[in-house]
Amino acid sequence: MACLGWEEGGGAWAHIHDRWKWLPDPSQGYSVCGAYQFLTSADAPLDRECTDNVWHNLIPLKVSLFVWRLLRSRLATRDNLVRRRVISDELIMCPAGCGFREEADHLFLGCATLSSVWSLVWHWLQISSVYSCVIRDHFHHFCRMAGMPRSSHSFFKVISFACVWNTWKERNNRMFNNKASDPNTILDNVKLTSFLWLKAHLPSFVFAFQDWRRHTLLCMGVVNLLFHVCSFVL
Ligand SMILES: [Zn+2]
């Protein structure tokens, strides 16, 4: 339940004027009945296959939790904050200044500025593909990369999680620190983050960072595939 933000200070609450406010029902406040409805609400139905797949021993728990919230539309994106009446409707636009509303699918896949890191990731991996503009479908296909050996799928999962994690950090840097990095810098962070996670949690991963940067597929155990083309059926 803490994952759903039910606990004090969690995502279901907003800190307003030094007191906690129960967002699902701002007028009446917290009630057991309201909490039950919040936990069993139909607006974010359980997708067991999708949400269960976020837990992986190569990925830090806080990042898995972040993706779990993302896939359940529980992230504090601006559209969700407007829906919960935390911010006003005028603040719903994407912090990248692209002119679109900040929704999860836009932020992580559709934004010409923030999500353009994905095309750099494809280029880094020497893979060409058509991918979904829906985050759940995107994860599903990226983490089970068509034509790639099953043993490599966990590496793709690590890279995809590192990508959304660093995109979110970039978004927060723009919003709260007034700092902006270009997509190539975000890509560098994705490479480093994924490398550090693998190095920390996979004893058989003996490669140096330069190997990971330059010969990523080989480090993933994918051999004889210098350029791989796959098309997803969406
Ligand atoms: Zn945008």
Q: How would you describe this protein?
A:
The protein is mainly alpha-helical and 234 residues long. The protein has 2 domains: 1-41, no CATH class; 46-229, no CATH class. It contains 11 helices and 4 strands. The strands form 2 sheets. The protein has a two-stranded antiparallel ribbon. Strands 3-4 form a two-stranded parallel sheet. β1 (13-16) and β2 form a beta hairpin. α3 crosses α8, α6 packs across α9 and α8 crosses α9. The two termini are 33 Å apart. 27% of the residues are buried. Residues 42-46 and 226-234 have low confidence and may be disordered. The structure holds zinc ion (ZN). Zinc ion binds next to loops.
Question: What is the topology?
Answer:
Elements: E1 13-16, E2 19-22, H1 32-39, H2 48-52, H3 61-71, H4 78-83, H5 104-110, H6 117-125, E3 127-128, H7 135-143, H8 153-176, H9 183-201, H10 209-214, H11 216-219, E4 228-229
Helix pairs in contact: 3-8, 6-9, 8-9
The structure holds zinc ion.
Secondary structure: number of strands: 4
Q: Strands across the major sheet, in which order?
A: 1-2
Note the run of SSEs as H and E: EEHHHHHHEHHHHHE
Class by alpha and beta content: mainly alpha
Q: What distance lies between the first and last C-alpha atoms, to the nearest angstrom?
A: 33 Å
How much helical structure, as a percent, in the residues? 40-55%
* Main sheet: strands, sense, barrel: 2 strands, antiparallel
- Rounded mean pLDDT is 82
Question: What ligands does this structure carry?
Answer: zinc ion
Radius of gyration: 19 Å
What are the low-pLDDT stretches, counting only 5+ consecutive residues below 50? 42-46, 226-234
Strand content: 5-15%
Number of helices: 11
Overall domain count:
2
Shape: globular
